[in-house]
Amino acid sequence: MPLADLRPLDTRALFRPVSAELVSLLRSLTPADWDRQTIAGDWVVRDVVGHLADGALRRLSFHRDAITPPPPDNPIKTARDFVGFINRLNAQGVTASKRFSPRVLTELFERASTDLATFFETLPLEAPARFGVSWAGEEVSEGWFDIGREFTELWHHQQQIRLAVGAPSLSDPRYLGAVIDIATRALPHAFRDVSASPGETLLVDVSGSAGGQWTLVREPQRWMIYGGTPEVTTARIQLLDDALWKLLFNAFTDDEAAEAIHVDGRRELATPLLRARSVIV
Predict the structure, then answer these.
(1) Residue 198 CB contacts under 8 Å (≥ 6 apart), including other chains
(2) Does residue 130 form part of some domain?
(3) Dihedral sign, Cα of residue 164, residue 169, residue 170, residue 175
(4) Residues 188, 137: contact at Cβ < 8 Å?
(5) Residue 181, in any domain of the structure
(6) 111 FRET partner, CA 20 to 30 A, in 16, 208, 212, 279?
(7) pLDDT digits (tens, 9 = 90+) for 111-157
């Protein structure tokens, strides 16, 4: 398939069914399941659920209801300051959620996620977003990208829970396909310091039911990403759809990431993909 511009992706209708799938899973868990370790750092299952509920409530409060977010303890002057601020907000929400029972957490997430789905379904796709997508290097984003970023949060945290409790992944490939489509748009920012001659290309060839082909092209001033396959490939990365989400959402160790990726061509051009992330880190 020849190169083509990536189009905006509408994920608004996906929040409701994916949230409902998580509520159904949570209601099936045993008490021991709620304390199972996840791949999300030190968080156990109940912490991830608490984070999702807190995130939905914050979005409703700051965006739908237009309250002013609390100011940071210290001025945000750098990207690292912003990451620290977000991490502290997340930690505060998880700490507060430890006071709640599994039933209360489930009901809290169900209500918050339902209200959030209803709100997202009303938002225009092209209007400026409430929050820029920082992991893509954007201070100002279009609405569809901000909404899509929130969908990747919902999906990948649910997947962390499913992995922890041994539950199967969501079967509909549309969901992972949307996550990958949104998450790959972080790659030009991840490659921003990578030197290459104009016209050099990196093909990311993703197999699986949610796979596809994405190509980074070095243009005179920056990297750009397109869908499809270039006529001439400087380097080619092959991996499974399940491996790509794990890479971009911190679900791999360095060794696991290296084993999951096959590279043809200039290997040094592919190395930055191992450090690329579609989350705030």
Answers:
(1) 218, 219, 220
(2) yes
(3) positive
(4) yes
(5) no
(6) 279
(7) 999 999 999 999 999 989 988 999 899 989 999 999 999 999 999 99
